[in-house]
Design goal:
Elements: H1 3-17, H2 45-51, E1 54-57, H3 62-79, E2 94-98, H4 104-108, H5 112-115, E3 123-130, E4 133-139, H6 143-158, E5 167-170, E6 176-180, H7 210-221, E7 226-228, H8 241-254, E8 260-264, H9 269-272, H10 284-300, E9 306-309, H11 326-337, E10 343-347, H12 362-367, E11 378-383, E12 406-412, H13 428-435, H14 448-452, E13 463-467, H15 482-494, H16 500-511, H17 516-537, H18 567-571, E14 577-578, H19 597-602, H20 612-615, E15 618-619, H21 630-653, H22 661-693, H23 708-712
Parallel strand pairs: 1-2, 2-4, 6-7, 6-13, 7-8, 8-9, 9-10, 10-11, 11-12, 12-13
Antiparallel strand pairs: 3-4, 3-5, 14-15
Helix pairs in contact: 3-6, 10-11, 15-16, 16-17, 17-21, 21-22
Length: 723
């Protein structure tokens, strides 16, 4: 970058860093969970004003400046007055933030033993004495730890916690906690339901939207430290110098919030933009090209994180095009970025060009034989389930099956199969269902969370990715409650063992209200919402029966595509019953799990009923635990799902006085759409499956109307991101 251009850029950067949230209107949702509205006496204002007399952040690095700005803004907003910055502790109640090497006060507290286990990003928050005065301290080994601690302290105030007896010691359980944006260079977003891409590529690097800083702040507030800017269905142009200068501008802006940038790498880039005739990963010229490209990137972005790669999947080029393995492909990129400290995340979402006997087995077949062959700076990125972000799946059998390789989960925050930005579906229970599943890879207690935090197989490189749901709409995610899924991902990436309900309570208090009744009501709604969606979409282990293409509504009748892209391939309904037989008598997908999980799923009597049709082809007359037949149980779940959305609407109506009018109205309208579409799911699916079961609808539910043909041809014309 020319000196004049760089000077202009940094001038712009400085201005942007000083700006508050764009259009900080109370009810437009643009502030996400970083709402620093003044507390009332009834929610602790007097106590906090008495406890915090002044604040100080010792040090002036960009990270500490970010922490200082956040504390200044947050304290002024929450406490309703200017809280002075100080240089010394002369009175009780001074908030001190810093590191032992940068802060004389933190150094004087002699915290070496307490800080040693907290690593580079952990921190302490506590009350303690200093020169006879009681202070509140935020202490960390590094400046980024201080930044995270500052956000945590403000979260305590936002959620009305007692700050007179603080004793917080926390560190992230995963090293890399990142968002994956499926954003394209033309600003379209694959599976994006919140407007256009955040990244205005034509305007970069000279013009920097204030939203970029807000994006970095939001991520830092929940411990997210990485972002993949581009779609896994990659465009090689992002690796050209023209675009790398734009990426560098974002990286410079994100750096003061400890947010690294990563890019998706198209495997055929050496051919498409490099002028080579091959992308064979073992060809010397290809090895040299990737090394040169990595050197070019790091010259512009010294802390560039590395590459995310989708290869030999859904038409994307990869090493198998040249008769090479996934390990060969990943390692050539890993060797290129290794000297700079970079990593490669190689996605395990693969399946044959030829239709296999069971697509859910493909990743295991391709990757387990390669265990131990990947470089140490490679992570295998595995979706939470073996298919594709379904409302419910069993955990992916690759978790625990590759002890010699670092494995990271990929969770989907954007709701591709769960109602896009229209349906209220809180995803933390879904995420936790995967993270807390016991793989039995090393006996009982081998939870997925222990695989990904490195403790089960002693891996130092650990990570978690979430497919982002943020776009350029004013409230970032389209649905106000969609913000909760971004928030929950960050909190679980920091600590996979956090409880979904606790995270919901935090988010509600920071985002909507601290009113006790409102918090309890909204929490009930959120905690029930995922199961409600499963009921009216894919109960009892049904999966991938969505409309072809946009995946928004029901499409159990879809049969006109490649076989393993169709709904009929997955539900396999016939006159005898319904469900995909993955037992030892069927596709034998159960064999990819460790005992006793394998045996649990293999036996129809022990298989959890919420996964029954995932693993078994079940007769319509099969007796369920409720005493109902399978057909009756299916009808019951679909009908209960619709009725439960009605309950969500009723609960929300009771909150009108507790929620600002703008967001109340938005959610009210979206819940009405959700109930309408839940009926479409119920009626369309049940009418279709009735053609196989030939059973009457139970007396407890009203027969669907008008007829199956109506639902087969139904079109959606009011759903964001759906064409």
């Amino acid at each position: 970058m020319k000196d004049s251009t760089r000077k202009s850029f940094y001038t712009c950067l400085t201005l942007v860093m000083l700006l508050p949230f764009t259009r900080a209107v109370s009810g437009d949702g643009c502030r996400l969970w970083l709402r620093y509205d003044t507390l009332s006496d009834s929610t602790g204002l007097a106590m906090y004003q008495k406890s915090i007399a002044a604040w100080m952040v010792e040090g002036d690095s960009p990270l500490l400046q970010s922490a200082a700005r956040e504390l200044e803004t947050g304290l002024r907003g929450l406490l309703g007055k200017e809280i002075p910055e100080t240089q010394r502790v002369q009175t009780p109640g001074v908030l001190v933030a810093g590191t032992p090497t940068g802060s004389r006060i933190i150094a004087a507290l002699r915290l070496d033993n307490q800080l040693a286990p907290l690593g580079d990003e952990g921190y302490l928050i506590f009350n303690g004495p200093y020169n006879g005065k009681k202070i509140i301290a935020i202490a960390a080994n590094t400046d980024q730890g201080v930044l995270y601690g500052a956000f945590h302290f403000l979260r305590l105030l936002q959620t009305r916690q007692d700050i007179t007896t603080l004793s917080v010691a926390t560190r992230p359980k995963t090293k890399i906690r990142m968002l994956n944006h499926w954003d394209n260079l033309d600003r379209t977003v694959e599976r994006g339901y919140a407007g256009a891409s955040l990244w205005d590529w034509p305007s970069l690097p000279d013009s920097l939207s204030p939203r970029y800083r807000d994006y970095a702040r939001a991520n830092a507030s929940i411990g997210i430290n990485g972002t993949v800017l581009t779609n896994v269905n990659a465009n090689a142009q992002i690796l050209t110098r023209h675009y790398l200068l734009k990426v560098a501008a974002l990286a410079d802006l994100f750096r003061p919030y400890n947010l690294k940038v990563y890019l998706t790498a198209r495997f055929s880039a050496p051919v498409e933009i490099g002028g080579l005739t091959t992308a064979d990963p073992l060809a010397p010229e290809v090895i040299a090209w990737w090394k040169q490209k990595a050197d070019e990137i790091y010259a512009l972005i010294p802390d560039f994180g590395g590459f995310l790669v989708k290869a030999n999947s859904e038409g994307q080029p990869g090493p198998q095009n040249y008769g090479r393995s996934h390990a060969d492909g990943a390692n050539v990129l890993a060797d290129a970025v290794a000297p700079h400290g970079g990593i490669v995340m190689w996605r395990a979402f693969v399946y044959d060009n030829d239709v296999p006997d069971d697509r859910t087995k493909q990743a295991y077949h391709e990757f387990v034989p390669l265990d131990g062959q990947f470089r140490k700076n490679v992570l295998i990125q595995v979706k939470n389930g073996p298919l594709d972000f379904q409302p419910r799946e069993p955990f992916h059998p690759l978790f625990g099956a590759m002890p010699g390789t670092a494995v990271m989960p990929e969770l989907q925050i954007t709701q591709e199969y769960l109602g896009a930005s229209v349906h209220l579906v809180y995803l933390a229970p879904l995420f936790s269902e995967c993270l807390q599943a016991d793989t039995y890879a090393r006996g009982p207690g081998s939870a997925v969370s222990r695989v990904i935090d490195g403790s089960l197989f002693q891996h130092d490189l650990t990570a978690m990715a979430g497919v982002a749901n943020a776009g350029d709409v004013q409230n970032w995610t389209g649905h106000p409650f969609g913000q909760a899924n971004w928030y929950a991902f960050g909190r679980l990436a920091w600590n996979p063992d956090l409880k979904a309900q606790d995270i919901a309570n935090e988010w509600i208090r920071m985002t909507f209200s601290n009113d006790k009744v409102a918090v309890q009501t909204i929490c009930r709604m959120m905690m029930a919402s995922r199961e409600i969606a499963v009921d009216y979409m894919t109960p009892l282990g049904l999966h991938h029966i969505m409309y072809a293409g946009h995946h928004y509504g029901p499409g159990p009748w879809v049969d006109h595509l490649r076989r393993d892209w169709t709904s009929v391939y997955y539900h396999r309904a016939d006159s005898l019953g319904i469900g995909f037989d993955r037992t030892s008598r069927g596709s034998n997908a159960v064999s990819q799990y460790f005992a006793p999980v394998r045996e649990l799923y293999d036996d129809i009597e022990t298989c959890p009923e919420n996964l029954l049709l995932w693993f078994h082809h079940v007769p319509w007359e099969h007796s369920m635990k409720s005493g109902r037949t399978l057909w009756e149980e299916m009808c019951h779940h679909y009908d209960a799902g619709v009725k439960s959305v009605g309950w969500l609407r009723s609960e929300w109506q009771g909150l009108q006085e507790a929620i600002d009018p703008e967001r109340f109205a938005v959610v009210e309208a979206l819940l009405a759409k959700q109930e309408r579409d839940a009926r479409i799911w119920r009626d369309g699916c049940l009418l279709y499956f009735q053609t196989f079961s030939q059973k009457a609808f139970p007396d407890s539910m009203k027969a669907p109307a008008p007829d199956l043909n109506y639902y087969r041809h139904h079109q959606y014309d009011d759903i964001p991101g759906i064409e």
